[in-house]
Amino acid sequence: MPTSRWCRRSSRTSSPATTTTPPTAAAVRPDHIVVVIEENHSARDIVGSTDAPYINSLVHDGAQMTRSFATAHPSQPNYLELFSGSTQGVTDDACPPARTPSRAPNLASSLRAAGRSFAGYAEDLPAPGSDACIAGGYARKHNPWSDFTNVAASANRPFSAFPRGDYSGLPTVSFVVPNLRNDMHDGTVAEADAWLRTNIGGYRRWAESHNSLLVVTWDEDDYGAANQILTVLVGPMVRPGAYDQHITHDDLLRTLDDLTGARPTGRSAEAHAIAGIWRGDRAP
Question: How far apart, in Å, are the Cα atoms of 246 and each of 223, 231, 265?
């Protein structure tokens, strides 16, 4: 286990059982996965912060990846990497990203080929399928699925379309992108934490009894050299604890691929899915 001061201490074990072979992501099949992407804060800013009580409740109840790293600075290349396994040659936040191959393989196209489904929910997106660059607190640089013509326009949804109460109609994988105030980009940690509790807390509770998974991660840190971020996974198939597997956006994408049976795309094909966090009783 790492010894950095922001790592959560837990009396619960975070090591796989030694008497049986632990299940891998490929052996776990959540019915739904929701991935929420926050902005521009290092793990040290969040873990243990009194401004983030809800996020720290997820850390307590879930698998905290203590060696999670983003790909680059600024934001846009990280979103593209997490969605497609490649920055697609993009190095800035320009809208639209000039070098993005619009039909490059990505998570949504891979899920569709596997008979599964994807949708992205972006807060303040002005209309379904919109290709707007800026609208209120919405920024297209945080919406990678809008850059690919092999992703259906119907999969590009305003967050107002995210269900409430009954989440059974969600696609297999959903990405959720809060607006610039609510993702910590322009607003505070406390504002983003409260937004997450209000808008995702219902899904988190529902997921516990419906074989579903919540992932909360960050696009990048606060321009630190390490680019170390918090990634936490919460759900009934997850064994709570702090885990020191080194992961990147590509490893998280590979985990989503393996959890859903989708073919890995880009660098996720050579990446390593998150291991050792899954409950044995969730293996088939």
Answer: 19, 11, 20
Position 16 confidence tier, pLDDT thresholds 50, 70, 90: very low
Q: Which amino acid, 101?
A: P
Helix (H) or strand (E) holding 32: strand 32-38
Task: Indicate the pLDDT class of residue 224, thresholds 50, 70 and 90.
Answer: confident
**Mapping DSSP to helix (H, G, I), strand (E, B) and coil, where does residue 17 land?**
coil
Residue 124: DSSP 8-state = T
Residue 128 has pLDDT above 80, yes or no: yes
In the chain, where are the structural domains located? 25-282
Report residue 119 CA to chain centroid gap: 13
Spatial separation of the C-alpha atoms in residues 236 and 209, rounded to whole Å: 7
Helix ranges restricted to H, the chain: 43-46, 53-61, 75-84, 107-113, 189-208, 249-260
Cα 219 from Cα 244, distance rounded (Å) = 19
For residue 140, CA distances in Å to 22, 144, 251, 261 come to 40, 7, 24, 28
What one-letter code names the amino acid at 174? S
Whole-angstrom Cα distance, residue 244 to residue 59? 14
pLDDT value of position 6: 44
Q: Is the pTM of this model over 0.85?
A: yes
Q: How far apart are CA 248 and CA 246, in angstroms?
A: 7
pLDDT band at 108 (very low <50, low <70, confident <90, very high): very high
CATH number of 25-282: 3.40.720.10
Average pLDDT over all residues of the chain: 91
Hey, how many other C-beta atoms are within 10 angstroms of the C-beta on 102? Answer: 11
Specify the pairing of strand 134-135 against strand 138-139. antiparallel
